[in-house]
Amino acid sequence: MPGEPGDEDPERALAKAATFHAAAVEAVKGTANGEAGDGQQQSDQRRRVARLDSEALQVGGLDHVVEAIRRRVWLPLCAPQPLLDDLGIAPVIGLLLHGPPGCGKSLLARRLSALLSPRPPSFVSGPEIMDRFVGSSERHKRCRSLPPTSASQSRTFCALLHCRTNAQANIRSLFKYPPRPLGGTPYPDDALHVIVLDEFDAIAGSRSDRGGGDAGERVRDSVVNQLLACMDGVQELDARTLLIGLTNRRDLIDRALLRPGRFEVHIEVSHPDARGRADILRIHCQRMFAAGRLDIPATAEAEFTAFLQGLAERTEGFSGAELAGMARAAAAYALDSLSTLALTDPCAPLLAAARRRAALGRYWDVDAARVTADDFERGLQDVMPTTTLGGSGGGSSSSSAEDTPLSKARAGAGPAAVQ
Ligand SMILES: Nc1ncnc2c1ncn2[C@@H]1O[C@H](COP(=O)(O)OP(=O)(O)OP(=O)(O)O)[C@@H](O)[C@H]1O
Fold first, then answer.
1. How many CA atoms lie within 13 A of 383 on its CB side?
2. For the complex shown, is ipTM > 0.95?
């Protein structure tokens, strides 16, 4: 039967799929054009199905991840059904993104789901689900420490049964489509439903490791069993469903969930390399650069690039979250120096309330506000201690503004050297 994993050698099926790629995209474009109501919607749909790359997703340093997603997840999802039938494949129903914290898994899942389907995705936090059910079952578990009267035993049994039933119902309800948002953009009934399972290991921990001992463990086991059952029944649903599991610990996840046909595609989202870090920094500094708030003229694209490369060289081992944090810290230092100006202005307390608002602009000197090399240097120092990897030592405390990538870039000296 088409769509059953293992019907055809996956490599061969993929090679065939690649051959049909152009035709598939064209066919989908055609469908989008045919179905769209007005011109705007047409062009939106066309863009949605026709493009999936790092730029469209607004993520940096994840080109290889995006390419794998495009090939294994996106192409089969947007290919025409007759073509999939000929190839004997069905789109995957489970994608697992795993890797260290802060490297962009949630960001990627959010952006990808927005690009894949007009239907709002369902976001689920693993610990939240488990706390609700396992927490209560563990509270009831304490009944076990009571003297083994028939009353306490039956209370424990009922509580466990209740928690298991609730947890299973809760997992089943995940697969139901969320109600259409009132006043939102209409979408077809069979639009893809994306379910993002954050901290997936909390829901999907390996059953064999736990031995199924106490009440909480039995609830956890029943959640995994329910998840397996729901995934196996996903093909019967009216709309296609894609589960995206996010985890820092793939090794903790039950192996039955990780097999082909369930979470079939595993992609590691790891720390970015120097080029990736420059891309991520560009995303997070682009706005201040374009607004002329960086201490580099907004037109000096080459200087900006050199500045980003210099910073990227000095931030080995940083995650995307840490790079974004560094840009925020630099901006906060810039604000801080401006607000100091405001506090030290001797006229400030004397101003009448009506004039304060107008005066604020003067005190903050909004027009002159720039994020300087020193601000980035201090931002780098701030974020450094949270970084556990790398330690190429960017930003030794003695480095002066003259040594910074920004000042080197401004002097036309190119990227700063790795320290
Ligand atoms: N590749 C990236 N490109 C651009 N920004 C990034 C990237 N990676 C991380 N960030 C920034 O860091 C923030 C946090 O990243 P995100 O929550 O996606 O990490 P995560 O891998 O899901 O972490 P965790 O495993 O701790 O949940 C993002 O909202 C974004 O601002």
1. 30
2. yes
